[in-house]
Amino acid sequence: MLAFSNCQEPHSKSEEIISESFDTANFYENLIILESSASSSLNDSLWVRYLLASGDYQAQIPGRALFAIRNYMAIYDSLPDRQEAALALFASAITFGEELDDYPRAIKTLGILTNDYPETKYAKRGLEYREMLIFGKDSSLLEKIHKWQQNP
User: Fold this and answer.
1) Which of 61, 92, 107 corresponds to the end of one domain?
2) pLDDT tens column, 36-52
3) Which of 95, 100, 15 is nearest to 56 (CA)?
4) DSSP assigned state of 60
5) Which residue ranges in the chain fall short of pLDDT 50?
6) What is the C-alpha separation between 42 and 39, in angstroms, rounded?
7) 113 with 124: CB under 8 angstroms?
8) Which CATH number covers residue 135?
9) Which of 32, 61, 90 is the last residue of a domain?
10) Is pTM beyond 0.70 here?
11) In total, how many domains does the chain have?
12) Which of 60, 61, 71, 132 could form a disulfide with 55 if both were Cys (CB 3.0 to 4.6 A apart)?
């Protein structure tokens, strides 16, 4: 019973971290808790939850974006047939674009997302984000392209 209770403690702390607004003051302690929960849940659906949370947490910390992407890509690589893989690709693309200003990698990641998971809600949002990255935020240009697509 003691082993079960010790195993549950990081999970309950992880749930607290997830439910709060990612307090960056205790960054290292919170990250250790999230990573510990993920490693103790390797054969469990909670692994994805805690690894995503760890990635989301790291994406908010300056200098930690690549660590976030590493977590997201571990999910994509490990669970390519599940919906979480699409979410992980979408999160990776957002992190490449918004945190690293690496638009070519963001666009490439969105291409993988839309090709491999075309029927997901993440693919639809990914297409919109990809258009914004390629064409910029010039809405008049986007409107012209949409009109052209409707009237060939």
Assistant:
1) 61
2) 888 887 767 789 998 99
3) 95
4) T
5) 1-7, 152
6) 6
7) no
8) 1.25.40.10
9) 61
10) yes
11) 2
12) 71
